[in-house]
Amino acid sequence: MAVIGFIGLGNMGGPMAANLVKAGHQVVGYDLVPAAIEAAKAAGVTIGESPAAIAAAAEVVVTMLPGGKHVLGVYGDIAPVARPGALLIDCSTIDVESARKAHAQAAEHGAASLDAPVSGGVGGAAAGTLTFMAGGEADAFERARPILEAMGKKIVHCGGAGAGQAAKICNNMILGISMIGVCEAFVLAEKLGLSHQALFDVSSTSSGQCWSLTSYCPVPGPVPASPANRDYQPGFAAALMLKDLKLAQEAAQGAGAPTPLGAAAAQLYAMMNAQGEGGTDFSGIIRMLRGEG
Ligand code: NAD
């Protein structure tokens, strides 16, 4: 079992680090927030002095941080002091360009690296059922696989540096667009006097079928576990959906990819956030579409 450094012990990183401890690894963690540190300690994580001190002692360092600037800042501290042959795995959701810079920082100092963002949310992090989408060299991926398997149930190698982030933002752009589409259909059904259950029964077995409908239905009733049944408590908060849609737009502009529906989805989620609903589940956008304030 390895000595694993874990930097960023927040809503996702805390339970992910706890699963590494459960798998028998020695986990040395770090965060800036005392509450995150206390929760990690209670889960069996040892707390290190600084990211650099952790990197100097660990064979593998996992980061789970808010954004690209945090990852590049931490990599600036850990890459120069990482042990020879160390493996750096960044699981944060960040822009593709920063992910590629982080790979370059690692390579400059002889460390192997992987961008490995996740889907599955806080529930998946706690249950150890996350999906990891990884970008980087095949060797780094094979070394990371058993570690990622302790935190997730599906691990996909998507390609070279940044490919994991590319997969993540493409997937979440589909999700944002499809959720708005499903919500619009329910709002139209309501105006036409069609019941939620009738639309669900038809569309869940017809060509309108998609995850936003069948697993995460934005109206209460048809899918009892969906956030609509608990007043749209997340789940996956609208603020995080907006973050991912903005990353997709940035990447699309940089790459010259036409994404008109992605742009419209980003605008609608920006509106929802501006209305103070960033902490609401992203399926709660149906209330904004209905004009409910
Ligand atoms: P969070 O804000 O709960 O956790 C981030 C943690 O990083 C915080 O505890 C913060 O104190 C810490 N941090 C920031 N800068 C640091 C530094 N320099 N050194 C050490 N610690 C530092 O966020 P989260 O929900 O855990 O999300 C983490 C990442 O996972 C984000 O990139 C997010 O987009 C992604 N993500 C989140 C979800 C979700 O449902 N929450 C799902 C998929 C992906």
UniProtKB/TrEMBL annotation:
Pathway: Amino-acid degradation; L-valine degradation
Start and end residues of each 6-phosphogluconate dehydrogenase NADP-binding domain: 4-159
Single Gene Ontology MF annotation: 3-hydroxyisobutyrate dehydrogenase activity
Reactions it catalyzes: 3-hydroxy-2-methylpropanoate + NAD(+) = 2-methyl-3-oxopropanoate + NADH + H(+)
First-level EC class: oxidoreductase
Spans through the membrane: none
Gene Ontology BP, a term: L-valine catabolic process
Protein keywords: Branched-chain amino acid catabolism, NAD, Oxidoreductase, Plasmid
Residues annotated as the enzyme's active site: K168
InterPro entries, per the entry: 3-OH-isobutyrate_DH-rel_CS, 6-PGluconate_DH-like_C_sf, 6PGD_dom2, 6PGDH_NADP-bd, HIBADH, HIBADH-like_NADP-bd, HIBADH-related, NAD(P)-bd_dom_sf
Gene3D superfamilies xref list: N-(1-d-carboxylethyl)-l-norvaline Dehydrogenase, domain 2, NAD(P)-binding Rossmann-like Domain
EC number: 1.1.1.31
Residues covered by the 3-hydroxyisobutyrate dehydrogenase-like NAD-binding domain: 162-289
Top-level taxon of origin: Bacteria
Family: Belongs to the HIBADH-related family.
Name this polypeptide is given: 3-hydroxyisobutyrate dehydrogenase
Source organism: Azospirillum humicireducens
